[in-house]
């Protein structure tokens, strides 16, 4: 048995040679070993030597070599170990068992209210493992490496203090943290109080009141609306006490805004008992009445809410984010909203704005967006000063509770170890421990600005929803749950036994809460009804507007030239790369009007003019600074810089003295979390041009849930407006299936209720006016831009500087060739994007004069009047052909044909020219791509064939 135990230890068995090697390296050079081992070995240096002296240890290799040499000279006399030697060994063992409890104590902690699992075998936590016996228990040892408040203690007391701290109702995990300061802070917070709270009687009564409110709401709804879905919190009521503590303590520390993200488990409870939503309003929703008359609306357990409540530090604004049933997807949305609020306040470290994310145990371990969001936590562009994560760990996901199926990690929270966030596992049946853990978590976030987790281990009294029968699949678990009296009852009995409340005090609270429910009264006191937050955003000017509203996007020529000069000038002694130098020189020529603007310059001038006018810009994406296709160069790099974190220059941050803020971020390699973050940012800040750019538009499908559940439908479901811009590089240029298509068809399929704008601009002037229109016009809808690749440097797509000083964005661009006689046109080709230039060149090569070409720059909302007006210019055209690069079952064709048909005259025929339907967005063989491109151009100018629709 001892051999098995030794083999499993991190200090013994097969690891011993490795540890000895580390220790030898430490003695030679302490900085050469990992920080956690260095800290452990540092503690050993304070332990007296085996002879009782305080001499420091020395490198062993020279000593070993000396003994080897003596061995060659003859037999070595054996020396019997002294009592001092044995005492020294035991002193080392005390240090070892202290470290073991800090590392492994959570495994023995009393965390499960249902007591379903046996305590694992962990020899490192057993004093016998280190050779201690009962005779050692009263021996006094030095414990200056702990925070128990004393320098020495008997072994018996040391073990009791370690067990109280690390194996009772709180199981702490934090020894994997690299920063010794953070580890020592947590050790001190826990060990100085033995992880045991000492709350006042009033505090305990308040905790009981919160438990009563949590349980009371669920039971009230259960009897009043029998069988109605609500995703009950019963079994996890301590969560409401945790939320209350985090919010009140945050307010005390100066936090003024809190944004909460959570799925549906317990959401109605949070709405009423945390945010102070009127129970009467909730009851009306159960009865099918809705205050907001939205085009679609949503179920009550997806609803968001906001309120202002009082805290010891003053009013705090609470916002519960709207969330679909896609569980953890709200996480990055909340973080983005928090970031916008921080920037509005000038709160760079998150001292005034706090994100709280509430997770279910199964989703926290199972959903990939959790990892993606955690990966944003300490980055410059996405950090929010730390997030408080609270897990409602009811030990089951839907019907999966067997740990062999639920996950591959020990704890559901193990994913946070990737960012070294500490985790406080806590037994929900000990509400005081839950509140203490919540205090420590909030204080850690305030001290270090990093994420922290409170894992409240509880149970789910009912099924996944109230119509479910969980005993079908969890008979043993639900036998235990049926016998559990409930956290509130247990705590009320405990307080009554202590004399903190009267014997019937708990029952009186239950009755009082039910009376409040019957009256539909607030359960959070007080909720502030007339408080005005000076940082609140007024969305009223942007609501109920039409996409056709005019916007003056032209900029005077003198101002354009001034801006051009500013964005093409670098500081003295700043040396850009020679290729960038040429780009800047070319742009300077464009800015003087000497040559046409390319796409990059048109885009830059749009940004510069908006910044100069007071509109902030936030641009993020995996290559946003340079641009995937090396066209943007918003961030310049000094080729002579000597430090990796210096030598950066942003021309757009230097266009005017009092300009708005320009932020450009090279994002982490993520689509889902980053796009959701930017969506969240845009919903909280209508006055910032918020742009997310995909590396290639093809990769946007990695964020499809964000598009479906938030961007496309957020306004009709929840009334949440957003002006988010998505730039999706799109174009068929022979780069294969994953580098050709941003899936225009999917976006157009989602279009309805004027919910977003879908465009494919083709010139530098068009992107200039389009970006300016998004901000200058008081109309905030998501804007999806299918941006070009080859057109970025195509001279035919260039625009003179004067085009920016007049006109605006053209939703439709008619025939541009003056040589085409409108009266002789027999066929009109309608297209969008790069294929327009292919068609123009093909028409010229074929010397065709009876075919006109119309460009659809905006596909949704469809510009019926503009398109109809352009089509009417060709009265003798009997044929209208839609031409696209994409396969027939993809691209705009099936989503746009009814709009084109509506604009046609009686007798005209509508046909299709393009690639045949395909399961893949594009071919991967260059020769096949060329053949397809040639064929679609041939079809565009040949006799109609295939599908023909006559009006």
Question: What does it look like?
Answer:
By secondary structure, this protein is of the alpha/beta class. It is globular, with a radius of gyration of 34 Å. The strands form five sheets. Strands 3-9-10-8-7-4-6-5-11 form a nine-stranded mixed β-sheet. A seven-stranded mixed β-sheet has the order 15-12-16-17-19-18-23, sandwiched between helices. The chain contains 31 helices and 26 strands. A hairpin with a 6-residue loop joins strand 5 (305-309) and strand 6 (316-320). Residues 1-9 and 76-81 have low confidence and may be disordered. It starts with a helix and ends with a strand. Helix 5 (83-104) runs parallel beside helix 6 and helix 23 (672-684) packs parallel to helix 24 (704-711). Helices cover 38% and strands 13% of the residues.
Can you tell me the overall shape? Answer: globular
- Secondary-structure content class: alpha/beta
How would you sum up the major sheet?
9 strands, mixed
Rg calc: 34 Å
Q: Please mark out the parts with pLDDT under 50 across 5 or more consecutive residues, or reply none.
A: 1-9, 76-81
Tell me the total number of β-strands.
Answer: 26
What portion of residues belong to β-strands?
Answer: 5-15%
Q: Tell me roughly what share of residues is in helical segments.
A: 25-40%
Mean pLDDT: 91
How far is the N terminus from the C terminus? 88 Å
Number of helices: 31
Biggest sheet: strands side by side, in what order?
A: 3-9-10-8-7-4-6-5-11
